[in-house]
């Protein structure tokens, strides 16, 4: 059985989950993109071409790629899995009892591949056979829907597979998401990890998020979680990841001996700094790219370590760059600024995901070609940058790291 383990941010990347933008992005419109957490509508064909280039680049560098829709379709082939997913996605609490039965009956007619596509891409009223609509809906909610309403909302943010689940050493956190527009994503990853043949008998742990319950404010998204290696984890306190979520994950990691220290760094609540990996990403054993307007040596941060009887000890630390060196196990770190030090280029290129690169082995990263100043500075620091197009994908506010969920990566 293939290994399910992520030991670092920079060790050789072996296997990864991606989600090619398809129906979900086609559902974005100027009137709903804010609600669906996008800043703009994307050109679907161009975004797909750019994603294919990203996919192919990974394969060319010996990374095995799995696509989310394929994994979900294969998961739904298990009748128990299919029942569990539809129980979650067609619940009475979501639709009311009558409409829940209507929607479930409609969804059960799809084959597994089409069902996977509809679960991730959504079902609109206009998708439903007009003849069927003559006899339905019978429910109160159904009568309230308009022609442009969704029965099953699209999940365009599935594009960013890093966030919904993240692998930390020998286990996974299936993350309780902060925004309502993304919470249904977690159902699909839970189903895949519990029922898909590649995972259901796998040798791994669930660190957080497995239980079917309301996690209230204890939210985490994978873009804020960076596995530094040697038992160290760096997590951003952000717009999407809360202190109580970080403490819960740290407590679980410590209880199972998976980590010996978690450092939480305060990023504020800026949309531009939505996740840690949009402002700070590890490039090499001693190198990080960073956005100085958000992350600097004065950034407030805290060290969490194991205490007695499952408790967590919290200490505020000083000098964030010194802490990064401590986490990385080096004397000092090389900090590579966004935009090469130009403040205008920095703001522009950070917005276009210059920091959000995917390290595929030490000192080798994949990033958007449009971020010229940052790429030039990285190369001067000895980092090899494999540039990919991202004019459309970048408008979704996510780069190569956001769009990838490693499931097998070497230690350092």
Write the layout of secondary structure elements.
Blueprint (H helix, E strand, L loop, with lengths): L4 E2 L6 E6 L4 H4 L17 H17 L3 E4 H9 L2 H11 L2 H4 L1 H11 L4 H10 L1 E2 L5 H6 L4 H5 L5 E3 L8 H4 E4 L2 E4 L10 H11 L9 E4 L16 E5 L2 E6 L5 H13 L5 E6 L13 E5 L2 E4 L10 E6 L5 E6 L2 H9 L5 E4 L5 H9 L6 E4 L2 E5 L3 H9 L3 E5 L16 E5 L3
Parallel strand pairs: 1-20, 2-3, 7-8, 10-11, 13-16, 18-19
Antiparallel strand pairs: 2-20, 4-5, 6-7, 9-10, 11-14, 12-13, 14-15, 17-18
Helix pairs in contact: 3-7, 3-11, 4-11
N- to C-terminal distance: 22 Å
So how many helices? 15
Strand order of the largest sheet: 9-10-11-14-15
Strand content: 15-25%
Give the helix/strand class: alpha/beta
| CATH architecture identity of the largest domain | 5-stranded Propeller
Low-confidence stretches: none
- Tell me about the biggest sheet? 5 strands, mixed
Compute the CA-based radius of gyration.
21 Å
Number of strands: 20
Outline type: globular
Average the pLDDT over all residues and give the rounded result. Answer: 89
CATH class of the largest domain: Alpha Beta
Helical residue percent band: 25-40%
Number of domains: 2
**CATH-derived topology of the largest domain:** L-arginine/glycine Amidinotransferase, Chain A
CATH superfamily of the largest domain: L-arginine/glycine Amidinotransferase, Chain A
GO cellular component, one term: cytoplasm
Subcellular location: Cytoplasm
Active site: 402
EC number: 3.5.3.6
